[in-house]
């Protein structure tokens, strides 16, 4: 039996308080964001798809993922370039037949949005949010949903936190792999609001590039964790303690 492994970029969007928004608002937000990404990056429909989690009936988070083979690398670009979110939302609102996106984003006021004069669209059409790929959600899509517009404006004002997860192209991860050390866990370790981007939970070892407050080190050690601070450059090689992880694996 032939077996194929494939890796694709994915982006998980979490809402601070999903219960405060209607399911229609979350549905509209999802597809407005997808359409904005498609237009901005000139992608074909279906190259980037989204799934509500845990289900369509109970939307709390949205998982965006590259659906085509190879992938365009768009989702990682959104995280790296802090200005893209605003541009994507502007594209989304324009598609939804609204003018005044820049002012609305700056003021965070949905009332600054004005419908296009030639917009012959009630809740959604195939010129804006509807597509072949979102047919199961079309009854819930409403481009006039105030909560959905508010979510888009909030997203446009957000700044991506690049410390939230390790990048597979990270130079330190490449150095670990070159030394025969298993890559760190995909989920960083967070202790008292300090993020350790590189964590090996199996060995209770975590590493970071930034300074770690002494009190955080004490708390981490009390929980059994060994904390390492990495230099900015990999020129000096992988720290000896991490080399021991390779020996343990062997």
**Mean pLDDT score:** 85
- Structural domains: how many: 2
H/E series: EHEEHHEHEHHEEEEHEH
**End-to-end Cα distance:** 29 Å
Note the beta-strand portion: 15-25%
| Percentage of residues in helical conformation | 25-40%
Give a quick account of the main beta sheet: strands, pairing sense, barrel closure.
3 strands, antiparallel
Q: How many distinct helices?
A: 8
How would you sum up the global shape? Answer: elongated
Write structural notes for this entry.
With 250 residues, the chain is α+β, with helices and mostly antiparallel strands. It has 2 domains: 10-156, no CATH class; 171-249, Endonuclease, Chain A, CATH 3.40.960. Helices cover 33% and strands 16% of the residues. A hairpin with a 4-residue loop joins strand 2 and strand 3 (59-66). The chain is elongated, with a radius of gyration of 22 Å. The protein starts with 9 loop residues before the first strand and ends with a helix.
Task: Outline the fold blueprint.
Layout: E1 10-14, H1 23-40, E2 48-54, E3 59-66, H2 74-80, H3 84-95, E4 98-99, H4 101-107, E5 114-115, H5 146-156, H6 171-178, E6 189-191, E7 194-196, E8 198-200, E9 205-208, H7 214-222, E10 226-229, H8 240-249
Parallel strand pairs: 9-10
Antiparallel strand pairs: 1-3, 2-3, 4-5, 6-7, 8-9
Helix pairs in contact: 1-3, 1-5, 3-5
Search tags:
alpha+beta, Endonuclease, Chain A, 250 residues, single chain, 3-stranded mixed beta sheet
């Amino acid at each position: 039996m032939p077996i194929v492994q494939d890796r694709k970029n994915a982006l998980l969007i979490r809402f601070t308080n999903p219960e405060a928004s209607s399911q229609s608002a979350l549905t509209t937000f999802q597809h407005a964001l997808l359409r904005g990404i498609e237009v901005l990056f000139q992608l074909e429909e279906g190259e980037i798809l989204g799934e509500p989690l845990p289900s369509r009936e109970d939307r709390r988070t949205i998982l965006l993922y590259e659906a085509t083979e190879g992938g365009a690398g768009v989702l990682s670009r959104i995280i790296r370039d802090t200005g893209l979110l605003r541009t994507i939302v502007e594209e989304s609102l324009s598609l939804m037949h609204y003018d005044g996106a820049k002012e609305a984003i700056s003021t965070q006021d949905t009332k600054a949005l004005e419908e296009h004069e030639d917009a012959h669209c009630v809740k959604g059409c195939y010129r804006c949010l509807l597509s072949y790929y979102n047919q199961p959600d079309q009854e819930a899509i409403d481009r006039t949903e105030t909560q959905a517009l508010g979510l888009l404006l909030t997203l446009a004002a957000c700044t991506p936190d690049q410390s939230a997860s390790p990048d597979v192209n990270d130079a330190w991860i490449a150095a670990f792999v070159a030394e025969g050390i298993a890559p760190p866990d995909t989920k960083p370790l967070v202790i008292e609001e300090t993020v350790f981007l590189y964590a090996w939970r199996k060995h209770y070892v975590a590493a970071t590039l930034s300074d770690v407050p002494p009190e955080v080190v004490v708390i981490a050690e009390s929980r059994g964790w060994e904390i390492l601070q990495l230099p900015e450059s990999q020129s000096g090689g992988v720290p000896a303690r991490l080399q021991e992880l390779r020996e343990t694996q062997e």
